[in-house]
Amino acid sequence: MALNQVIYLDTNILVYLLENHPNYGMAIADTLRDRCDKGEALTSSTILITEFLAGSPGGSISNLRAVPTLSFYPVDETVAVRAAELQKKHALSIGDAIHLATAVEVGAKWFYTNDVRLAKIVKHYIEIMEIA
């Protein structure tokens, strides 16, 4: 599923956005609004739903559904195999491996995260977007 001009969102980005993080919330909102206005799409793995609902106090699926242009890509066999390879190669957590594998599978142009360790690995595969 190769898409053009796709921004892959790591879970921390949506947590900061939807919980209106005092340092990052507005910067992320402004960046995503600007990018979506330019026709860029947002995507993530379905694993984000699990991570968000489990880790965000008061978070709900309706919060996620309210993010314009955000779509979710399922963890299918291709993603699972690639995630296992990435997990072994880079000693990633299963969640981070699934995120990176999904981003590669969908052909994301950018990977938006605030996870410094993950970003160092992702940059070998996809361009990193930094919080402004």
Question: Key features?
Answer:
132 residues, Rossmann fold, five-stranded parallel sheet, 5 strands, 52% helix, globular
Topology, element by element:
Elements: E1 6-9, H1 11-18, H2 25-37, E2 41-45, H3 47-55, H4 61-65, E3 70-73, H5 77-90, H6 94-106, E4 110-112, H7 116-122, E5 127-129
Helix pairs in contact: 1-2, 1-3, 5-6
Could you characterize what this model shows?
This protein is of the alpha/beta class and about 130 residues long. It has a single domain (about 5-130), classed as 5'-nuclease (Rossmann fold), CATH 3.40.50.1010. The chain contains seven helices and five strands. A five-stranded parallel β-sheet has the order 3-2-1-4-5.
Q: Please give the domain count.
A: 1
Fraction of residues in H or I helices: 40-55%
Give the overall shape: globular
Low-confidence stretches: none
pLDDT average, as an integer? Answer: 93
Round the Cα radius of gyration to an integer and report it. Answer: 14 Å
- Largest sheet: spatial strand order: 3-2-1-4-5
The CATH superfamily bears the name: 5'-nuclease
What is the strand content?
A: 5-15%
Compute the number of helices.
Answer: 7
Q: Could you say which structural class the secondary elements and strand pairing correspond to?
A: alpha/beta
